[in-house]
Amino acid sequence: TWKWVVGPMFLYLCERLVRFWRSQQKVVITKVVIHPFKTIELQMMKKGFKMEVGQYIFVKCPAVSKLEWHPFTLTSAPEEDYFSIHIRIVGDWTEGLFNACGCDKQEFQDAWKLPKIAVDGPFGTASEDVFSYETVMLVGAGIGVTPFASVLKSVWYKYCHDATNLKLKKIYFYWLCRDTHAFEWFADLLQSLEAQMQERNNADFLSYNIYLTGWDETQATHFVVHHEEEKDVITGLKQKTLYGRPNWENEFKTIAGKHPGSRIGVFLCGPEGLADTLNKQSISNSEADPRGVHFIFNKENF
């Protein structure tokens, strides 16, 4: 038995030592941004830190807890000179971090007063393969939208600097959420991308659909009254918010018809139930002919 145990235990100890060494490296918080609905953005720098789109890190704040590590998706792009995460204040640990960063105070906080942060990572996800396809479908459900902030930012940087070398030519983005107000920071990112793409006369590069899955009678009346306005009353985007859930069969058939003979990457960050639905649609809408359209499904669940 010991022969079978020694090998895995040795590898495990090596992995723990590497993680401990990485967690001891100095991390500098360069900026703390407070977003609506008790969401904060931490912008950080760390020597030798390299990331790809959609990756995540583990974060520890000794001022809050000396033992707890929490995973957060990176919302910055590799092209930026910092890395960032967005944290929604929903529990004891996040509340402690919120207070430790001085976000509960009205006055401006000096950088030296910010707490020390330990970071382990980054770690890879399926989203890293986005740039391997000419056409992709990105599907985010609720907080699952965060990996695609990194993807969309990186796409924009690549498009601005040298779009001729960018293999990715078309993005279909779907965001399903019960309440968009909790993610106003992401709606702001979409507004910026929408405006910049229109300035460069390439508004068709990004097609996005936002589905609101929860609303009450008062909200529904407000939506109807303001439906004819140029911009959406919820997000401020030109693309109007849709209500309910998408008909995935129709969406897949429409995209397959627009891109015959293509390999289309389908990327999901969302619940397991939605993953099963998209996986089945990817299989049923892929053709048996190798020269036909094929949907390649990739997922990460929470």
UniProtKB/TrEMBL annotation:
Alphabetical keyword list: Cell membrane, Electron transport, FAD, Flavoprotein, Glycoprotein, Heme, Ion channel, Ion transport, Iron, Isopeptide bond, Membrane, Metal-binding, NADP, Oxidoreductase, Phosphoprotein, Transmembrane, Transmembrane helix, Transport, Ubl conjugation, Voltage-gated channel
GO cellular component: a single term: monoatomic ion channel complex
Catalytic activity: NADPH + 2 O2 = 2 superoxide + NADP(+) + H(+)
Subcellular location: Cell membrane
Membrane topology: Multi-pass membrane protein
Sample GO molecular function, one term: metal ion binding
PROSITE patterns found in the cross-reference section: FAD_FR
InterPro entries: Cyt_b245_heavy_chain (IPR000778), FAD-bd_8 (IPR013112), FAD-bd_FR_type (IPR017927), Fe_red_NAD-bd_6 (IPR013121), FNR_nucleotide-bd (IPR039261), RBOH/FRE (IPR050369), Riboflavin_synthase-like_b-brl (IPR017938)
Biological processes annotated in GO: defense response; monoatomic ion transmembrane transport; superoxide anion generation
Cofactor: FAD
Domain (FAD-binding FR-type) ranges: 19-129
Predominant place of localization: membrane
Superkingdom, natural source: Eukaryota
Coiled coil: none
Job of this protein: Catalytic subunit of the phagocyte NADPH oxidase complex that mediates the transfer of electrons from cytosolic NADPH to O2 to produce the superoxide anion (O2(-)). In the activated complex, electrons are first transferred from NADPH to flavin adenine dinucleotide (FAD) and subsequently transferred via two heme molecules to molecular oxygen, producing superoxide through an outer-sphere reaction.
Protein name: NADPH oxidase 2
